[in-house]
């Protein structure tokens, strides 16, 4: 499958006004680079990274430029963007249509299970089969390096995967997610999913699991300016303390106040409602 990486490289090189001669060395000749740019030959990943170093562009940045030019509309990231837009508008029919044979998105079995799990949060009558969920969890348990794809699959199946499997998969994700200091998207989503697992663990009174997650989430949030995650974690910590000892009310109140200051009206309403049911028994 041609990925047009060479065309992207030529675009970057010419944009920086750097000649082929400047990139050539004893490992890769001018003619080899030229053929790669024209799509007539391939080069190894190591050679490509070496060229990118000379161009002073990271692999992450290069792939972002490449994706913006050549990723087709059926890509996983664009599918997720589409689902988010439809979900925020509660367009259940548009999401359900993704499962039809006429959809422009060609969904593999794992993504179909994810879509059914998302639909389940809107319509409890729609649910993946036990076999579908088993196939998905088997796949995730075998993953050694969790990328955006695996992280999103797990995150959207929280309500359909049984708790024990969900917690164990969250641990796998925490230990094995792919991190880049230049693109912290994965780390931020992992943090959000860990907090979600923490809250679910509190709901189910799995307190030893909660203690583990608190430790891991603190590591994720260390030296990060993620106000949303910090605030939700503050609320969840207060919730945990309240469930265990009746304390933690002030932490929950502080978190709700911060959400108000941040203008997060929907989140404030959500956690205020949770607080009232929990503490005020409303």
TrEMBL record:
Segments forming domain HTH cro/C1-type? 9-62
A molecular function (GO) term: DNA binding
Known Pfam families for this protein? HTH_3, Rgg_C
Q: Which SUPFAM superfamilies match?
A: lambda repressor-like DNA-binding domains (SSF47413)
State the name under which the record lists this protein.
Helix-turn-helix domain-containing protein
From which source organism is this entry? Streptococcus suis
